[in-house]
Amino acid sequence: MTRTPKVDRRKFLASVAVAGAASAVAPDSEAATTGGVMPPSPRPSALRPSAVVAAAESAAPAALAHAEGRPGSDFMVDVLRSLKLDYIATNPASSCRGLHESLINYGNNERPELLTVMHEESGTGMAHGYSKVAGKPMALLFHGTVGLQHATMGLYNAWCDRVPLLLMVGNHMDAATRPPGVPTTHSAQDPLALVRDFTKWDDQPSSLQACAEAMVRAYKIAMTPPMEPVCLALDAHLQEHPQNGELLSIPKLTLTAPPQGDANAVREAARLLAAAERPVIVADRAARTAAGMRAVVALAEALSAPVVDQGGRLNMPTTHDLNQSGRGPALVGQADVILALELTDLWGTLNAFVDNPQGTRTSRLKPGAKVINLGVGDLYIRANYQDFQRFAEADISIGADAEATLPSLIEAVKSELTPERRAANAKRTDDLRQARAQMRERSLAAAALGWDSSPVTTARLAADLWAAIRNENWALVSPDFFVSRWPHRLWNFEQHHQFIGGSGGAGVGYGLPAAVGAALAHRSEGRLVVNIQSDGDLMYAPGALWTAVHHKIPLLSVMHNNRAYHQERMHVQKVGNWRDRGVDRSRIGTTIENPFIDYARLAQSMGMLGIGPIEDPKDLAPALKRAIEVVKSGDPVLIDVVSAPR
Amino acid sequence: MKRQIGLWLAVAGWAVSGLCGTALAADAVKGKQTFIRVGCFECHGHVGQGGVAGLKLAPDPLPFDALVNFVRTTSGQMPRYSTRILSDDDLADIYAYLVSIPKPPDPKSIPALSR
């Protein structure tokens, strides 16, 4: 019998550190005597430690000598508790060991409680999903440098999605005292430079008092619209060493009131809207809270105006007659006044772009149409990454938080509406009600197409899932673009928390972690949480399944397993056609086959109930019934459904 | 089962087409294979049901001439297919497949869609 040599991770890391240390403290004696010119000689892969290093490795850690007294990281826990954080997602890291130890022993791992994540990008995704449901940040505690590098895509998603996160990374600032080898490799002079293009604020405090102020300031900045991620680098020395007698205090947190629109600009916008014959409201991230959604509804009803919900959040109940999201481009083209609320892409809303070889661009606006842009997009912007999109012209531009501004806009609109206009608007409501009913009929007829076909159509997947959850207290925590928006076409989304939008930055790997984080936030409300999970996205971060099991986070994940990176396959096909080379080879580099991945067994390997793969649509409803029973008992479940591409 | 679809029902609509003779010999089973091979299913679904990326193609597909004209000349989101990529015979087979796709059940008869 042959044995595979085992690699002991601790010993391996120790040897790496020793090697680094040895090279640092023991100059090569041969090189020293020959002017540094020596022929290569056979050497062991890890040098024997010098006497100094050996003593350092085998003796009591020097840190013990100055570990008496209240550790600095205990004070950091006090500050974090003052922010009323419930969770900190962490992937353990030596540069954070001081704070980690304080959280679990001094803080008793309660409020905040540590969540173990298996990749920093997963942790960031979890915090992203959590924050959109809980309405406050989940903190993150990662290694500086390597951990932060892993976390970057998740941060960019949160940045684009305007979600507040509080990321803390460990760092060894003092080159003279930090451990040699790996810890030094993982240290940086300015670790947060890496993410400064897509975080709102960062700091690396060098005293405990400065740390307290930085933590409170970071939280306050993150929670002020435009809400965005913030980052802190926490010096390992500051964490691990005792407080040196300085008088410490925790600053009082007072959240900043969100910026409201200028009164004159709001009045001018109201005049335009109230006089409009065909106004349209387009909303993306307008409703930060349930109150925000109620405000969008109130404005729409005051104007009898159709609302196009672009889906960054749930801005408008799908059951409301004025929700006309399925007619977005047509409505924009017919409108005389367009009110844009917190749009990601105003230019893309007002213009049509055809992805053909010419990149055809045409304005959707009819002549004389007016555009009112209300949102925080102009208030905070960075130059490098282009998430601010193409420049779009507007007639009135209000740099303010839409949710905070809507109440004054509604009042102004009501005061501007004439009796004649009110009567004309009422007639428009009847037309819109009829149009919505027709859309609904068309959607139901379209959902029946291919009802019994295999792979399971995305409409069948959504319809069977809706039938299984409609009488529950449910929430969908995944975007639904890749399943042709069937949930938005078939389900009754009526409460703000029932939908949280997508990733923001369209970075794959957001889906599962965000769903787990969102499910955690829903857990205390006892909601049945549903995630329609793409296969490619899952494989970026399958470790999030383990986190859900480990922390008993109930979540029903139903796979949209189309066995490909389908969006990209369509792109490759398109270019192949443009070049007249054909599409037969487009599966190369884009499909997930040979072998197919058994997602049910993947889930099972992490202690989760995994069902599937389901290829016959008739098997889906019974599987959902079984899964929901388990989820309602408090555990996550995954159902693998082999499904149509879109 | 290999189904030879004569497309007799569609003949009136495209009798003037130069592809008429080709289409008459079209093969729905082969058409389904081609529909998958050349990636139609990616945007339009395996049974032409359509979705966010592509229009519904079946049942009741466009008249054959209109489909051919669109496939050969479009400059929209869908890339055009030249005869080098998709022969006239292949296109006729695809049309035969689309015509063969049965009508869906009435959504009112499906419990998951009728509530």
Describe the structure in your own words.
The complex is a heterodimer of chains A (646) and B (115). Chain A has 646 residues and is of the alpha/beta class. Chain A is built from 24 helices and 18 strands. In chain A, the strands form 4 sheets. Chain A has a 6-stranded parallel sheet with strand order 2-1-3-4-6-5, with helices on both faces. A 5-stranded parallel sheet of chain A has the order 8-7-9-12-13, with helices on both faces. In chain A, α5 links the parallel β1 (87-90) and β2. In chain A, α4 (72-82) packs across α5 (97-106) and α6 (120-134) crosses α19 (511-523). By secondary structure, chain B is mostly helical. The longest helix of chain B has 13 residues, at 88-100. The termini of chain B are far apart. The model of chain B is unreliable at 1-21 (pLDDT under 50). Classes of the chains: A alpha/beta (646), B mainly alpha (115). The interface between A and B is large, with 48 and 37 residues.
Put the structure in a nutshell.
Chain A has 646 residues and is of the alpha/beta class. In chain A, 41% of the residues lie in helices and 13% in strands.
Keywords:
heterodimer; A: 646 residues; alpha/beta; 6-stranded parallel beta sheet; 5-stranded parallel beta sheet; 18 strands; 13% strand; globular; disordered N terminus; B: 115 residues; mainly alpha; 7 helices; 47% helix
Q: Which structural category fits the helices and strands of chain A?
A: alpha/beta
Coarse shape of chain B: globular
Q: Based on the structure, what is the oligomeric state of the protein chains?
A: heterodimer
List the total number of helices of chain A: 24
Proportion of residues in β-strands of chain B: under 5%
Mean pLDDT of chain A: 91
Helical percentage of chain A: 40-55%
Which spans of chain A of ≥5 residues are poorly predicted at pLDDT below 50?
A: 1-42
Number of strands of chain A: 18
Strands side by side in the biggest sheet of chain A: 2-1-3-4-6-5
**Largest sheet entry of chain B:** none
Instruction: Enumerate the spans of chain B where pLDDT stays under 50 for 5 or more consecutive residues.
Output: 1-21
Total of helices of chain B: 7
Rounded average pLDDT of chain B:
83
Helix-strand string of chain B = HHHHHHH
Q: Which percent band covers the strand fraction of chain A?
A: 5-15%
- Radius of gyration of chain B from CA coordinates: 15 Å
Shape of chain A: globular
